[in-house]
Amino acid sequence: MDKLLVTGGNRLEGKINISGSKNASLPILAAALLTEEPCIIRRVPDVSDTNYMLQILRALGADVERSSGTVRIVAKNIIPEAPYDLVRRMRASICVMGPLLSRLGRASVSLPGGCIIGDRPVDLHLKGLQGLGANIDVEGGNMLMEAGDGLIGAEIDMRGKHGPTVLGTDNLMMAAVLAEGVTVIESAASEPEVVDLANFLISLGAKIHGAGTRRIQIEGVPSLGGTDFTVIPDRIEAGTYMVAAAMMGNGVTLNRVNRTHLTSTTEVLLESGHLVDFNARGTSVTVTPGEAPQGCNITTAPFPGFPTDMQAQFTAMLATTPGLSVIEDTIFPQRFMHCAEMARMGAEIDVDSGRAIVQGVESLSAAPVMASDLRASAALVLAALGAKGTTEINRLYHIDRGYEHIDEKLLLLGADVERVRSR
Ligand code: EPU
Q1: Is 115 a residue of the active site?
Q2: Average pLDDT, the chain
Q3: 0.90 exceeded by the pTM?
Q4: Among 98, 222, 276, 317, which one has the highest count of C-beta atoms within 10 angstroms of its own C-beta?
Q5: Is 112 in the pocket of ligand 1 (CB under 6 A)?
């Protein structure tokens, strides 16, 4: 297992490009299963999650070629069984359910196992697919789905107790594009990644209206064609470097961003006293630390609210911001594993009932820490960049799931980081 050594204190400066979105790429890659025609997908980040998804597509019979960020998929002869060994490694593998069921009339996909960021049930995914007429049984840890006479459009409300579901909306949308008749998804997720998937499907010939709102309408078509499509920038990667720049920057510019996806992240940085300056087109942003940063309160919410995927990174920043901050995660109330690790670096954080109460301290000090999930590891890297001494971040594979070449990008900005490869 690789680890990262981060020696804190260097001021960051310079420009980097933000990669294509991991969370948009994953369902889009799965959606290539919906058509026999070639799909060229550009700016797919080279991270382990997208590589797992490509392995799953290969195991399902698709022809997959990857040349840096560009992926070409031809899914002519595919099978409906997704192998457990690959599926268990990544929850987003459940994105293949909708396309397989829709294209082949059946699918067998392992139930995803436990997840460190909290309970992550699949009831809403199943509700959606059942709503289109699929029969679903759970047997030997697998979800067996069947729609012998094809899926039929229906009106389905996807609201769960924590709000809308992103991948659940994606699965239902992918299933509905080839279903007979019209499907209406109520309480749909409106995240930019859902919109990007809809745009990808539209580029294949699907008929979808309302993506980006709470009501998506899909008119089924008999078959789909091919496409050449470019994935949106990763708003969480961009947000993570924006926080790094606010904590340790001395003129950091991020190119290839989309301002409209970064509104809530920008608002919280401004509220904490930092400076955020986009270019006129909103495709590039410079973040500069404010002179008198102050604590603030954050509550995560579905888009356009503050993303749960940015919660850990802001906790790292607020750990050394003067004053008291309260951070509440309403989407994943157990997603606070990073706090205990940051406490080992001297942070003063109390976690209770889905909330972290952070008393900003002057500085953190290096310690060996353990990455527990993707965003928690990013938060530890941020904490380490500002800490005194050399922090050793173990289990780096978590961060490699979703941050393309993070060590190289940080080196470009002048950070003192070193990846120690496992033998
Ligand atoms: N939920 C249910 N039932 C379901 C599905 C979800 O109750 O059937 C609940 C979840 O437990 C959670 C809430 O609904 O409380 C929202 O979860 P959602 O389904 O939206 O999460 P997801 O689609 O599985 C995606 C991202 C996550 C991100 C969440 C929330 C991908 C591949 N994953 O997951 O990203 O945190 O949406 O925005 O797109 C990450 O990148 O680090 C990450 C975890």
Answers
A1: yes
A2: 96
A3: yes
A4: 98
A5: no
